[in-house]
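Database export, one record per block. Field names are fixed; values are copied verbatim from the stored entry.
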Amino acid sequence: MEQAPKYSFVLPVYNEAENVEPMMERLATAGAKLDAPFEVVWVNDGSTDATEAILEKIAAAQSNVRTLHLSRNFGHMAALCAGLESARATHAVITLDGDGQHPPERIPEMVRLWQEGADIVQTVRSDSGDLGPTKRVTSRWFYKVFNVLADTDIPEGAADFRLLDREVVDALNNLPERARFVRGLVHWVGFNKVLLPYAPESRLSGETKYSLLRMMAFALSGITSFSVRPLRLAFVLTLLVVALVVVYLGYVLVAMSSGKYLTPGWTSTMFIILLLGAAQLLVIGIASEYLARMYVEQKQRPVYIVRKRKTSRE
């Protein structure tokens, strides 16, 4: 009977034909240092180059390599979720990119931190000269905006290079929502976590598949997945307009009592416009509050997650 792997390495890839084999060699070296059975799960996210053929060649030669080929390019988050659901590890799952920027050489250190009690070992990217100015600025602002708006904080520079205890993986896989922002969900589920700084390496070859447009879509998905505050801005705007109506009404009363000339019709017109605007915004604000609650409910996230402590992590 085949022995279940203790660790799973999960790598989503899209058009990384030139990088798969060098990464596999580095993963094998890192896995050998664990002194425990491990598997490598490659998720081919609808690649159009030779990625699929190369992965099948590797899987045929190495029994601890498994491949998943998605029917089309569903995106990095979907491919990552497919890998997590497929991982058979009994102890922990390590996720990383297949382009070489997430160094597999740090895996033994991540496992050591897990053995010391961490359920999540989250790597945090340090600034690198290879990181372009656009990527650096957009990344920094994404984390700032996300942490202001969302109910879950993500450490600045948190990457999809992380170790997850088996129980954390099960908790993530049991979440019923379809549009998953894994980077936020990992921190939403709780558990004990430690941060591990790392310096990103240069891509082994090729160019990044994350265009500015994709990064913007990624940021929007993350913010809308974890925040209803933009919806509630309508209610705040309502209060501001109501306050403006009250201030204007006070001005009109003071002006009339002091005998100041007011243009006929102007006062009543402005008052009606502001009053109707406030009424409309009030209705929108109330509707937004109910919409926000429906938005939260339709995700069907569990109200809580019970954490079970393992007796041994050897």
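Remark 1: The chain has ten helices and seven strands.
Remark 2: Residues 177 and 299 are 5 Å apart (CA to CA).
End of record.
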